[in-house]
Specification:
The chain is an alpha+beta fold. 39% of the residues lie in helices and 19% in strands. A seven-stranded mixed β-sheet has the order 2-1-8-9-10-7-11, with helices on both faces. The longest helix has 20 residues. The protein starts with a strand and ends with a helix. The mean pLDDT is 89.
């Protein structure tokens, strides 16, 4: 699944990445950071289940960079995890809590990666070993659209697609939901209960009048970082040896994804179809909101400049592109984020329920889980 480009060579799989880190430090240092991370993770629980105790609060109120430096972690790890932080939160290590970094780092390791020797091994050896690894991740044979397609099949006429909710107000015991339909005309439906599965700023814009003062106060504290994806099409593969390739922290983008790997693996007939890599672009800091304002030409020039550092003349193979901008890409897990989450989840009841990536640890799995929790809350009010 994973690979890392260090500016000169690509390392493949968990073992290759471990060798990259050891090569830039030592076996003892590598084992030291694993012991540090695993000892902290032993007490880690996700919101809303977590017991927000003194230990958790201490890690929640120290930034990840200070925590790593305070434990003597060298620069090669700081750089790698800063790319991780930008890729997941749209923010540098100095902007997120140490508590929020721990589960993401642990995901990269298992107990077998302790006590490695300092034999770096060849790139081909690393790649062959990586091909036999399991990733502990999941996906769908035709990509994530399988999930939304299935939801559409199950919900059928109960959903309105291609619409945009603009305002939600209370109407007696019910709620008036105003939206623009596919044809551009305004329409209204009356709802007994409302689940707001939108980014926090959008939630505030469309539902300010039905939110409690406590919810509004907490939501206003949530900072979002933007991000951009650039899909590049080519007739011949640019990168097809791993699903996710991380690049040095100084590069314009954080990751290169082989967007068609899974489907090609399960459908050999797709092998001759155009290849697609997806470039993830996150800001250097969440404070910088100007990234999504960058024009297509400037954006592509920056992408091509660094892509060609990774794969020689890669930009010359590109036959087309698609750019998607997300102004509310990442909810930043800033200092005190878990305390914020705990309070927000504790107040999340009644007939207006919050869901989405700002309600729980912001990964794909958590986004799904926040929806599950919201459905449980609705069912609970129905039973009562």
């Amino acid at each position: 699944m994973d690979a890392i480009f260090d500016g000169q060579a690509t390392r493949y799989g968990s073992d290759g990445i471990a060798r990259h880190l050891i090569n830039g430090s030592s076996v003892d240092t590598y084992n030291k950071i694993l012991k540090l991370i695993f000892s902290a993770y032993a007490f880690y629980e996700e919101i809303p289940i977590a017991d927000y105790n003194k230990r958790a609060k201490a890690l929640d109120y120290i930034d990840a960079r200070s925590w790593l430096l305070g434990n003597g972690i060298p620069d090669i790890y700081i750089e790698k995890y800063n790319v991780t932080s930008r890729g997941l939160f749209g923010a540098g290590l100095q902007e997120i809590s140490a508590l929020s970094l721990i589960p993401e780092v642990v995901f990269d390791y298992d107990d077998s990666h302790f006590l490695l020797d300092d034999n770096i091994g060849s790139i081909s050896e690393q790649y062959n070993k990586a091909k036999s690894e399991g990733s502990n991740s999941f996906t769908f044979t035709k990509g994530i659209s399988e999930l939304t397609d299935k939801l559409g099949d199950v919900l059928s006429d109960n959903i309105r697609t291609g619409c945009n909710v603009t305002n939600i107000t209370r109407q007696g015991k019910n709620y008036s939901v105003v939206y623009s339909a596919q044809d551009g005309k305004m329409a209204t439906i009356i709802a007994k209960k409302v689940v707001l599965a939108t980014p926090a700023p959008v939630t505030m814009n469309i539902a300010d009048s039905i939110l409690s003062s406590e919810k509004k106060r907490i939501i206003k504290e949530i900072n979002y970082a933007p991000y951009i994806t650039v899909a590049l099409f080519s007739d011949e593969p640019i990168f097809d040896k791993a699903f996710d390739l991380a690049v040095p922290d100084s590069y314009f983008f954080t990751d290169i994804y082989d967007a068609t790997w899974v489907e090609r693996f399960y459908n050999k007939q797709k092998a001759d179809h155009p290849n697609i890599i997806s470039i993830y672009i996150a800001p250097k800091t969440s404070i910088n909101k100007s990234l999504v304002l960058m024009g297509d030409h400037e954006l592509l020039q920056n992408v091509y400049h660094d892509l060609d550092k990774v794969f020689s003349a890669a930009s010359s193979k590109v036959t087309g592109y698609d750019i998607e901008r997300f102004p509310y890409g990442y909810p930043v897990m800033s200092l005190g984020a878990y305390e914020r989450l705990a309070k927000l989840n504790a107040s999340n009841n009644g007939s207006v329920i919050l869901a989405g990536d700002y309600m729980i640890y912001p990964t794909f799995e958590a986004a799904i889980q926040s929806g599950y929790y919201a459905a449980e809350k609705i069912l609970e009010t129905e039973r009562n």
